[in-house]
Amino acid sequence: MTTVRRSDATRAAILEAARERFASDGYERATIRAIARDAGIDPSMVMRYYGNKEGLFAAASEIELDLPELGLLPARHIGAVLVTHFLERWERDDVLTGMLRVGVTNEAGAERMQAVFARQLGPVTRGVCPDPDQAPRRAALVASQILGMALARYVLRLPPAVEMSTDEIVAWLGPTVQRYLTAEAP
Amino acid sequence: MTTVRRSDATRAAILEAARERFASDGYERATIRAIARDAGIDPSMVMRYYGNKEGLFAAASEIELDLPELGLLPARHIGAVLVTHFLERWERDDVLTGMLRVGVTNEAGAERMQAVFARQLGPVTRGVCPDPDQAPRRAALVASQILGMALARYVLRLPPAVEMSTDEIVAWLGPTVQRYLTAEAP
DNA sequence: TACCGTAGCCAACGAGCGTTGGCAAACAAC
DNA sequence: GTTGTTTGCCAACGCTCGTTGGCTACGGTA
């Protein structure tokens, strides 16, 4: 459909640099000039291809959680599977850390984050919890525990949270997530 | 010991304005000029009394969690008590929200947050968990769940997390925290 | 070869930032 | 009443930011 442009490589380089900068510095401190320097091009190119800083952020924060289909596996393992998946997703690259960082300081970032979780985590929970109308609430509980661990481990870097192995985290958080998804409402 | 200065009212006004700005805007977007405007004085006064922006932030983020003595109450209620206490503390003012916001984008903020939790949450957990050498780890797990809920509810404002009543949150998170503190290590 | 859209860089703009130094008024000490 | 200290404001500094407009050079097309 869209043809290949000569500038595609540049666009991709900008996007990659932007993701890294937003992730490590947050929205305000991630400057267009620094992103352009990382990408090896002129700051004005960023403006040409993405309009302005907000547009660049919007393009850089398209996120896929790649959640597994929970309905296809044993009901009693979904907590551990979900936690494992998120930990892997979080360690694979720093896009999620970036989204978290930006979501905290930037209104557009927070909305993006709401959308990602509503659209990608919501449906997954709807299939496994006993009361489908409570699914959003249960998804929010799961998000609170998973985002909280990511916050403690990857952003705030609380030493005990950093030192724990992923297995250990799964062993502790798995049952929590499992309960939030499948237990009867308290 | 220190005598009362005529400028104490000004100092206090600056501090209050700084706390609000840091809380709502984060470290970078909270400008000294805006804080001074809120406090009704000149920006240069902020520099005179607090040295620079970092000094102002350090002074504005002295935080007391006011945690209760967990040893004094029934062991099986400490999870609910802790969650209740944090929710109240969080809703009372926006200092904690601010600390969270700044801790995410600012290195000094993250360190301040590490210190607050290590110094104030750590000791409380040490008395109630079965293996005192694992106390920091358990405290980090508790922090991950409580900070995660604060993140979802007060910062990102995920709609389902905002809509839940505090009782409901306590009913869900209480057992989680209880388990992190008192259950045998998995 | 002549042409035209695209890709890229350079230089500059206006604005906002943290921060500084000096000056005027209010107060305190003698 | 004079002197020294505190409190406050004003004006400016150097810097970085996002953003703009114009210029050169390249690549495909006729």
UniProtKB/TrEMBL annotation, chains A, B:
Pfam families to which the protein is assigned, alphabetical: TetR_C_16 (PF17920), TetR_N (PF00440)
InterPro entries: Homeodomain-like_sf (IPR009057), HTH-type_TetR-like_transc_reg (IPR050109), HTH_TetR (IPR001647), Tet_transcr_reg_TetR-rel_C_sf (IPR036271), TetR_C_16 (IPR041678)
Source superkingdom: Bacteria
DNA-binding segment(s): 31-50
Keyword annotations: DNA-binding
Keyword GTP-binding tagged: no
GO molecular function terms listed in the Swiss-Prot or TrEMBL record: DNA-binding transcription factor activity; transcription cis-regulatory region binding
Domain HTH tetR-type: 8-68
Protein name per the record: TetR family transcriptional regulator
